[in-house]
Each structure stands twice: as structure tokens, then as C-alpha cells.
Amino acid sequence: MATAVSSNATCSLDNYLVLPDHSMDARIQAAKDRLGSDCVILGHHYQRDEVIRFSDIQGDSYRLSQQAAAASAKYIVFCGVHFMAESANVLGRPGQHVVLPDLNAGCSMADMADISQVEDCWEQLAALCVTDESGNGITPVTYMNSTAAIKAFCGERGGLVCTSSNARGALNWAFAKNEKVLFLPDQHLGRNTGCAMGIPLDQMVLWDPYMPQGGQTAERLRKARIILWKGHCSVHQRFLPEHVDKVRAKYPDIKVWVHPECRWEVCQKADDTGSTDKLRKLVANASTGTNIAIGTEIHLVNRLAKQHPDKMIVTLDDAGCLCTTMYRISPQHLCWALENLVEGNVVNEIRVKDCVKHWARVALDRMLEIQ
Fold first, then answer.
1. Residue 292: CB partners within 8 Å, gap ≥ 6?
2. pTM, to two decimals
3. What are phi and psi of 343, to 5 degrees?
4. DSSP class of residue 292?
5. End-to-end CA separation in angstroms for the chain
């Protein structure tokens, strides 16, 4: 669990929110200049252009975790979502302060796995003899998009955290310890990764935390190699197989690349799947004139299209899939947080409780050791 701690702000956030976006640019830059090396701004690729252009480091959740662990700055301003700021606090050094410019920037996927539900699942698996009371026989693996409490749960029980960049390596690590994996909280990343490793679909079962025994029979749970938590990304789940069919009908030679948080059926129809960083590299390495449809968050797709005008880059879904929680962080929020830091006021500080931080750190350190 994490708490948000705000000291007295120099100026009310409400006074910033009424100002237009463009009026923030000079103020943000001036605050950055005054803070200098005391402050590092981390920006996730899904952030809007008006915010991410002020970031010192850009990346997906894996790269930003590495950067947070290596940061020496006094202040880490995380332009991402809550679970990312939690991880930065877990990996940070004593005396560092992690700031999330808008505390409402959460993650619906992370909210789909409550710690009490996960603990209940673990107890039921032991009662059904899927594992013993000590957890022998199954390794818990949680996706980065989860709360610090879930990360700590996995760390304490011999498991680890993964990202879409190293999910396969994490599963190999987990299977080296036990024959089964409990994969939290994104069913699609778990299923797509397991499938890529050659695990049949009938050896991966879905645990619904709102149903007795997760909605599964004891026999199915005992035979399964991967028990998938019933969670998903609200952005990537919107992509459907018919979107792939539609874009191929319109552009027969198009390359379709999607994030592994997409449905299994979508990934099967795609030419390739990959993390945010992999998708960016695929685009960068594509030949001039290549037609590309990308199944991921719309801000990243639009940014890639601007960065590579020699290629036609479109979203897989014309409706555009926006991460609304990432979008909550605005130039106004960033300016407010930075100007308060200039005045010595730390606002919206994210602190993970010490009782959770130790085991969450264990799980994250294991993740960072896997390529």
C-alpha cells in the first residue's frame, strides 16, 4: 500500500487548472532550470505531447523502473500513473521524494487485483491441493501494472514482477522454481506470453476472483500450468480481431503490430507483438514507405507518425484508444508540482509503507535482473 503526502502548496492547484496549456511552457522550463540536477522528470510514452516533451527520460514501465532505480536526484517527478510512482519510491534511495503530479492518474488494470482477493485465491489454491500452505508448487508473477501490495505478495512468496519487455524471461524464471504460475493481473499478457512459449491454451485457465474457486474446477486448476487472473487493460482490450481484418482489407500490404496486452485473437492475427519500446524499434527499423497499423495507446501512435513521416502509421482502431488515466497529467499539474518544489514544498508525494516496501523491492529487483 502507498500513501500520498502533500505539504502546504505555494498556490492552489485550482489556480493553475484554469490557465491554458500553452501558458505553462515557459513556467515549466523555468522551474526545471531552477531545480537543475535536484529533479528528474520521468515520462511514460503514453503521456500527451504537451507533458512528455519536458521529461528528462522517456520510456515504458520497464525502462522507467531502471531509471528510477538509478536516479540520484532529490526529486523524481513521475509523469505516469500511480503504480509507476509506487515502484519508483520502492526502488528509490533514502531521502528521495517521488511526486505524482495528479493523484487521480491511476490504472484500471491494477485496480482489478485487490490484495485481499489475491490472498483469498492463494488460500483456495492451497485448500484445493493445487499448492501447499507454503506455496510450494506455484510461483506468483505480477505484471508491473499492479499495486505495491501485490508486488510485495509475490516477492514474499518467491515470485517476481515482470513487464511486457521481459514477461517471457520472468515466466522461464518462475517455471524453473515450480511447475505452475499464478499470473497477475493481466490475463492477456499472460496468455500471449504462455502461447509464445508453446504452452497450450487448455493448460492456461482463468481465475475470476468474484466466483467460487475462481470459476474453475479443482481438476482444471491442478492440470493448469498458468492460472491467469481475470484482469485486463481497458485500452488494449478495445482492439478486436475485426479491426485487423478491416485494416488489411483497406491496405493489403500493411504491417500490423500490437501490444501483448491485446486479446489473444488480435495478437494471433498480427504480424508481430511487443512492448512499447519494441513497437517503437519496429517502426524505426521499418523501410521507408512501409504501411503500419499499431494496436496500442493513441498518443504513442500519433507521436510515432510524426517522428516517421516517411512511413504511413495509423492506429488499428479508427476510434482511437486513449489511456484516460495517463491523460489526467496535464501541463498545469506538472507546472504546479515543479513550482512547489522550487519553493521547497513537496506535493503529491508517493510513499509505500515500510512493511510493504521490503518485499515489493525483492520482487522488483528480481525483475531487473531478468532480460
1. 254, 255, 256, 257, 283, 286, 311, 312, 313, 314
2. 0.89
3. -85, 0
4. E
5. 27
Under 8 Å between Cβ of 152 and 356: yes
Structural contact between residues 132 and 107, judged by C-beta atoms closer than 8 angstroms: no
pLDDT tens-digit map of 201-244: 999 999 999 999 999 999 999 999 999 999 999 889 999 999 99
Q: Where are the beta strands (DSSP E) in 203-243?
A: 204-207, 226-229
Residue matched to cell numbers 511487443? 274
Contact by Cβ (8 Å): 71, 92: yes
Burial of residue 327 (CB within 10 Å: 0-12, 13-18, 19+) is middle
What is the bridge-based pairing of β-strands 180-184 and 226-229? parallel
| Structural domains of the chain sorted by starting position, each given as residue range(s) with its CATH number in brackets | 2-104+326-355 (3.40.50.10800), 113-231 (3.40.50), 236-322 (3.40.50.10800)
Tens digit of each residue's pLDDT (9 = 90 or more) over 313-360:
999 998 767 676 777 899 999 999 999 999 999 999 999 999 999 999
Residue type, 195: C
Residue in 350, 358, 332, 280 with CA at minimum distance from that of residue 78: 350
